[in-house]
Design a protein that fits this description.
alpha/beta
């Protein structure tokens, strides 16, 4: 049962990343946006970052800690036009007196025309005196 739900979670987080190359963009300021597109000749048009964390503490009195950091950028002369960031985490404390802590920090590139962020998480503490703490940050570049 857990494998099916975890597989479904992974599928749901991957679909937005696949869809980024479809469709178009309505231009608000055509000269400025076309200038940015022209400046990126020879550079990738899009950037996708996927960060997935699974942390579990399952025995009585066990402790599990996890910290993930993802920073995407590029060279100063070559930035993608579109950025997609997917961050997902599962944090489980499943035993009497167990504790699980998870921190996921993702930061995307700056200076892009469009940024899509998708953040999903599952945090559960089950059992007497168990605790689960989770922090998910999905930030735009600065």
């Amino acid at each position: 049962m857990r494998r099916v739900s975890f597989a479904a979670l992974m599928l749901l987080t991957a679909l937005p990343a696949v869809a980024q190359d479809r469709g178009g963009m309505r231009m608000n300021n055509a000269l400025s946006e076309l200038g940015q597109i022209d400046a990126n000749r020879g550079c990738p048009l899009s950037s996708t970052s996927v960060t997935i964390g699974v942390n579990k503490s399952m025995a009585a009195g066990a402790t599990a800690q996890q910290q993930l950091n993802t920073m995407t950028g590029g060279s100063p002369n070559c930035r993608p036009l579109v950025s997609t960031q997917v961050v997902t985490g599962a944090n489980l404390a499943l035993g009497r007196g167990s504790s699980a802590g998870q921190t996921i920090n993702a930061q995307g590139p700056s200076g892009v025309l469009a940024t899509n962020t998708y953040t999903r998480s599952y945090n559960m503490g089950y059992g007497a005196f168990s605790s689960a703490n989770q922090r998910i940050f999905n930030q735009l570049g600065r």
